[in-house]
Amino acid sequence: MLNMSDIMETITMIQDENLDIRTITMGISLIDCCDSDIDKSCEKIYNKIYTYAKDLVKTGEDIEKQYGIPIVNKRISVTPIAMLVGASGGDPIKYAKTLDRAARDVGVNFIGGYSALVQKGFSPGDKALIESIPRALSETEFVCSSVNIGSTRAGINMDAVKLMGQIVIDAAELTKDRQCIGAAKLVVFCNAVEDNPFMAGAFHGPGEADCVLNVGVSGPGVVRAALAKMPDDASLDEVADMIKRTAFKITRMGQLVGVEASARLGVPFGIIDLSLAPTPAVGDSVAHILEEIGLDMCGGHGTTAALAMLNDAVKKGGVMATSHVGGLSGAFIPITEDAGMIAAVRAGNLTIEKLEAMTAVCSVGLDMIVIPGDTTAAVISGIIADEAAIGMVNSKTTAVRVIPAIGLAEGEELDFGGLLGNGPVMKLNTSSPAKMINRGGRIPAPLQSLKN
Amino acid sequence: MKAVITVIGKDMVGILAKVSTTCADSNANVIEVTQTVLQEYFCMVMLIDITQMNCDIDGLKQRLSANVPTMTVHVMHEDIFNSMHRI
Fold first, then answer.
1. B67 CA to chain A: closest CA distance, Å?
2. Do A65 and B32 count as a contact with CB atoms less than 8 A apart?
3. DSSP state of A325
4. Fewest Cβ atoms nearer than 10 Å: which of A77, A251, A339, A344?
5. Phi, psi of A5 (to 5 degrees)
6. ipTM of this complex prediction, to 2 decimal places
7. Is pLDDT above 60 for A134?
8. Fold exhibited by the domain A28-56+73-190
């Protein structure tokens, strides 16, 4: 029979340590919905999404009941809409509204893919889509948007970086009566991945199958609890080993749910994203893991090293537990979604400069950071360019999701509620990079791109 | 198909009887039971066969919770433990 302590461990993980499947995300290709008439294109999109995803939420709930594991989010990602805009022309907002309607009707809580991939340059569809992003995010409820502005292979498209600085501000401005939520649904990527199940940056890449199911696991609380049981003098080898074992168990659960859900839906299983995704719930924080490893407070010196070890151990533990790893896979460090990060920012112990260093060793980037409402577009472009440079040179995904808190100054707080959490406005270095940003053009791909 | 029932809480008369009666009513066959009482705390793990069960796992959990309301009850599919703790 099963070992009693194993059984109790699993139950404690779920009941007390917030272990859950963070998301099952159905990726749907919309390439075959393309039509030169935008209205026909929208109709086909709605029908395809509805047909494929109508049982997604119910299947997720059935699996929750059968296995007793919470599956927090059920979501959809679609082909970057800029490709469809390129073929159909017309007002891209029509696509946003179609996606929103489809998401509402199938009952998912986010739909990602209002996206453009412009790491090397813009096509007319890309340009039209990007310019429509602020309106699309303010006029829809469920749509998430992302733009890839750089890659290790292509370098950084600085014209896009410049444009996105302004788009982020506009997205916040148009939703200033709703906690600037527009900017929280917009991610600017370097080295974006095609199979990411996590929002707001999920889209279904053009290299993907017609329909796949990707799973994002979670479990910072479980890792923290496992480390808390270790003696204070355990060496870092032992700490890393404990993280690996815990990540293995978490990932096995994700694999089980992913395979089961894809079988029930008749859709191929895509990947598991081995991520530690925090939530604002008490005890579900990546910052608290770092503190459990031995920091007084997240953000102090030593934070980057602790995070690097955590990120690596999570991958090592998870990779053997699943048949296919993908997505972003690593530890997330979103500020507003992580109780420990929020506390560190409020205490003045965690600055944006330290976060930037941390993004060189974690899975994504500057995520869910509330910045002063009067920040200029050039400064935001500068933040995006810095992050993209880290991603480009280190051949990793980096991203920027900052929320200009329109009308608020440093120290005040935005509150999104739910999984997006709340957070204080962080101090920025406001010296202007405008001259560099205005130069435009492309930062050439680094030597790291020449792998052939 | 098998499932694992765990019941944890303050010890009292008739827990095992109530839980096994509920299983019988749901047509779930009890395969194995392990229980410990540490001081006054009762902890039971029960492996049941759910192939012929007349309700789903969630339904069984609700019946159990209703019959032993002071205890914390979990019912989970066996697969979850096997996948998590076996390579």
1. 19
2. no
3. B
4. A339
5. -70, -30
6. 0.83
7. yes
8. Anaerobic Ribonucleotide-triphosphate Reductase Large Chain (3.20.70)
